[in-house]
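Form 7-S
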Amino acid sequence: MRIATWNVNSARQRLPRLLDWLQQRQPDVVCLQETKLTDDVFSDLFTEPLAALGYRFAHHGSGGFNGVALLSRVGLDDVERNFAGQPAYRDVVEARALSATCAGVRIHSLYVPNGREVGSDHYQYKLAWFDALAAAISGGPADVALCGDINVAPADIDVFDPAAYVGHTHVTAEERQCVAALGLIDVVRAHWPGRERLFSYWDYRAGMFHQDLGMRIDLVLASQQVANRVAAAWVDRAARKGKLPSDHAPVIMDLDEAPDGDIGPVVPPASNPRRIGSTKLPQSRTQ
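Output:
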């Protein structure tokens, strides 16, 4: 079974690319984040083309900057929007979590709050959101995978230059501890320990993608039972190229067998990465 996660940064804008990618990579389950659509609009846009490709779907969104979806051609049972105890931000429980059981695995499509600035109310919301998530999954099924834009780089190796991120969100000890506290296995890192320049997100500005100045914040976190089945785990960097791309690339986990082989951590690898040193980050995202 092939499971993928992709922050598409507007499902409407990415619709043609997404449909082409589904036909190319043939994933069985896809978790989408930042759809930026209401449920009705997502349904209007996607019902017919997804059905033609054999997918059922669930979507949870209210428009704006959030929205998550699950696409599956191996079952979509016990769909749950949000999770128990999910906190609100300024009295709104945002559309950031969606889960279902697909071929026996409980799969969560997650769009974790950004955090914006260290110490801000949004940063505290992010930490509380992680705490509630950990509590919600603690008594859940043994076969589980949390997939999505986790908005945390788990270690210094997961950013192009640790010095450039000092004082920023996504890399603080508190955020990294929240990911560790989930008690799950970071599938891509476990499959490729020690590999550098293993990124999934590159800011649109300042030529960050072409210089491979990125970070790894899109993760698949799995229970031991699921991780034991991993035949391949990789970042589909090719989907970040071309016209009108998302700023994120899909992350793919193959269970039991690898249709494309165990082809590498990032496919294709960057051709001309810039050396780290004095690069400054563009203005931080605020979603």
